[in-house]
Design brief:
alpha/beta; Aspartate Aminotransferase, domain 2; seven-stranded mixed sheet; transit peptide; EC 1.4.4.2
Length: 772
């Protein structure tokens, strides 16, 4: 049956191409020779120029319009082809097909954009607009740290991976047979993380460090089968990590306690896990060996948030005894980008592999017995486990994980260690110089890249630094930290000395005092174990070698450079080059997420513009750009609905109705929000069974919180009763959460707000123009 369907599809495609050719090709002329080659069989004939100059005829206004319009270059179906396709479906026009497909009850009036976006931009105008926004950003040299660092993106990786559509257009590699190149690169990523953390298993990969820490917290709960509900977080963790864990804990009914690690109290017998930062957010490197032993003695699992570059120098978490290590690979050649996206990681032991979030790449064999790669574990398991899934992760930042992996491949173990030693040396030189100045007090604890300083007026020092286009981190009125990275120079250190001397000249230089500096890391914390020992990390250290390796891998993949990707869960398209170009503009790429807001004016104007446009498109009143994946959007939207009910005093509303046809992440997200899932079935055609839904809503009306619904459905159908479905939920006290995975099929025709939904997430990589 499946083969018959494929053959029928191919036959239809041949008829479309033939009909299209006859509808658009000019009749051949006799007696006329030409040097132009004949079009390849099956190729689209080129239409005649829209505006040909005829002597003596006035030039039309339309002939004077710009030629670099988006539809002209990116909407490949010509009007004639659209007419042929509509005809094959039994309609005279595309509009007639739409009128017959989209229910009349939910057809919205045309969208009205206001201001400069009303007519849209040409490609050149778009580049000018983005250049204007970039000019509004002030990318001062960042010494803020907190898990985000400037980095040098090797040019060979920038051009041949990050800016290469043969790498950035593929979907998450669910289909191993057409993703062997990316799978090998992701296996390199896993190997890199496992080696550096000293733990045997790593995923590939997660969304950001804070989310990875929250996933580790959920793992600790799962390990003890929810019998212990307290999770302890060290106060030296990054503040954003603490915030995310506290928010995530509410859905799991976990009691989060934040305190200094030395004050952790296990006496309640209710602690499932602890989280510590290594190195700490203010730079300190603590010896956790005895701490880990004590936690394990009380039956408590240890999560360690860490830094991959530091682990080339520091004893790794696995050797210390940590059960789980999490962190970000951002400083391995991925720009800060005002906070992301970045690839994170989670590494653990074999014992807990079935509780790991995300996906794991494994080595297998193909049907002929040759080595092959596949997803040994993947998030598609969510579609089976649903509300019992360990995670709702749906996107792994595979492109950025590949960048980080190639960064490690390019530099190798010796290269990474050299970068780490240089960063540590610059931090040590700075600390030594401050001691010579004598104007402030330098923390005496060991550090890797971040120096903590006690001073009389931290804000005054930070202001002086900003005058010199440098950003420092103000912890409190008397505490400041300065974090160093791969891009820091000796000249930068000299500028910092001048800042800390109140703008007065200093009688020494960083270069002159560097020979006096020694490492601050004690021998007990110095790493002596090897890492990145696989040959792949020693083979490609020159540009031409890595270039060939990158092209070798991309030749094993199917990307949008080759064809459409036949994966129904995502609508893929080749992103316009002008949409991608700003991503690597230094004014956007090199902005630290905690830089003063007045330095990011271009970013914030862009956020406001995008939000206004999204409000118009969706029919909603407000927006958030914070979720960084579809499942994150589900979680955020459901948490908003949860907060809405609580604000009205309806704390008891916790039932979420979900059709059995929903995305697998839907029930997983609802479970993470502490909701009770009630499934409703579908009818013979795969549509939501409205009567069954009505009965479920009425039966749970006292506790109904939300409905999760995808529109059009996961079967690709505009269900007729969607407006009635929304009314049923509202009449029974619930809110409607719409999964926007198929939003591209709504834009310009209807909208979630017009249909009656209350909250919706948008997969920007599906409907709009970002890579995944």
């Amino acid at each position: 049956m499946e083969r018959a369907r494929r053959l029928a599809s191919r036959a239809l495609l041949r008829r479309l191409l033939a009909a299209s050719s006859s509808a658009t090709s000019p009749a051949p002329s006799r007696g006329v020779s030409t040097l132009a080659p004949k079009p390849a069989a099956g190729s689209r004939p080129r239409a005649r120029p829209a505006h040909q100059y005829t002597p003596g005829r006035p030039v039309s206004v339309s002939a004077l319009q710009p030629s670099d319009t988006f539809p002209r270059r990116h909407n490949s179906a010509t009007p004639a082809e659209q007419a042929v396709m509509a005809s094959e479906c039994g309609f005279n026009t595309l509009d007639a097909l739409i009128d017959a497909t989209v229910p009349a009850a939910i057809r919205a009036p045309p969208m009205q954009f206001t201001g400069k976006f009303d007519a849209g931009f040409t490609e050149s105008q778009m580049l000018e607009h983005m250049a204007h926004l970039a000019s509004m950003n002030k990318t001062y040299k960042s010494f803020i740290g907190m898990g985000y660092y400037n980095t040098h993106i090797p040019a060979v990786i920038l051009r041949n991976l990050m800016e290469n559509p043969a790498w950035y257009t593929q979907y998450t590699p669910y289909q191993a047979e057409i993703a062997q190149g990316r799978l090998e690169s992701l296996l390199n990523y896993q190997t890199m993380v496992a080696d550096l953390t000293g733990l045997p298993m790593s995923n590939a990969s997660l969304l950001d460090e804070a989310t990875a820490a929250a996933e580790a917290m959920a793992m600790c709960l799962g390990i003890v089968k929810s019998k212990k509900k307290t999770f302890l977080i060290a106060s030296n963790c990054h503040p954003q990590t603490i915030d995310i864990c506290q928010t995530r804990a509410t859905g799991f009914d976990i009691n989060v306690v934040v305190s200094a690690a030395k004050d952790f109290d296990y006496s309640s017998g209710d602690v499932c896990g602890v989280l510590v930062q290594y190195p700490g957010t203010e730079g300190e490197v603590l010896d956790y060996a005895e701490f880990v032993k004590d936690a394990h003695a009380h039956g408590v699992k240890v999560v360690m948030a860490t830094d991959l570059l530091a682990l080339t120098t520091l004893r790794p978490p696995g050797e210390i005894g940590a059960d789980i290590a999490v962190g970000s690979a951002q400083r391995f050649g991925v720009p800060m980008g005002y906070g992301g996206p970045h690839a994170a990681f989670l590494a653990t032991s074999q014992e807990y592999k079935r509780l790991m979030p995300g996906r794991i790449i494994g080595v297998s064999v193909d049907s002929s017995g040759k080595p092959a790669l596949r997803m040994a574990m993947q998030t598609r398991e969510q579609h089976i486990r649903r509300d019992k899934a360990t995670s709702n992760i749906c996107t792994a930042q595979a492109l950025l994980a590949n960048m980080a992996a190639m960064y490690a491949v390019y530099h190798g173990p010796a290269g990474l260690k050299a970068i780490a030693d240089r960063v540590h040396g610059l931090a040590g030189t700075f600390a030594h110089g401050l001691k010579k100045l004598g104007t402030v007090t330098v923390q005496e604890l060991p550090y890797f890249d971040t120096v903590k300083i006690t001073c009389a007026d931290a804000n005054a020092i930070a202001e002086e630094a900003r005058k010199n286009e440098m950003n420092l981190r103000v912890v409190d009125a008397n505490t400041i930290t300065v974090a160093f990275d791969e891009t820091t120079t000796l000249e930068d250190v000299d500028k910092l000395f001048k800042v800390f001397s109140g703008g007065k000249p200093v009688d020494f230089t960083a270069e002159s005092i560097a020979p006096e500096v020694s490492s601050s890391i004690p021998p007990s914390l110095v790493r002596d174990s090897p890492y990145l020992t696989h040959p792949i990390f020693s083979m490609y250290h020159t540009e031409h070698e890595l270039l060939r390796y990158l092209h070798k891998l991309q030749s094993k993949d199917l990307s949008l450079c080759h064809s459409m990707i036949p994966l129904g869960s995502c609508t893929m398209k080749l992103n316009a080059t002008v949409e991608m170009m700003p991503v690597t503009d230094p004014k956007f790429a090199n902005m630290h997420p905690f830089a003063p807001i007045d330095q990011a004016a271009g970013y914030h104007e862009m956020f406001d513009n995008l939000g206004d446009l999204l409000n118009t498109i969706t029919g909603f009143d407000s927006f958030s750009l914070q979720p960084n994946a579809g499942a994150s959007g589900e979680y955020a939207g459901l948490m908003v609905i949860r907060a809405y009910h609580k604000a009205r005093g309806d704390h008891h509303r916790n039932v979420c109705i979900i059709p059995v046809s929903a995305h697998g992440t839907n029930p997983a997200s609802a479970a993470m929000c502490g909701m009770k899932i009630v499934a409703v079935g579908t009818d013979a055609k795969g549509n939501i069974n409205i009567e069954e839904l009505r009965k479920a809503a009425e039966a749970n009306k006292d506790n109904l919180s939300a409905l999760m619904v995808t529109y059009p459905s996961t079967h690709g159908v505009y269900e007729e009763g969607i407006d009635e479905i929304c009314r049923i939920i509202h009449e029974n006290g619930g809110q409607v959460y719409m999964d926007g995975a198929n939003m591209n099929a709504q834009v310009g025709l209807t909208s979630p707000g017009f249909i009656g939904a209350d909250v919706c997430h948008l997969n920007l990589h599906k409907t709009f123009c970002i890579p995944i």
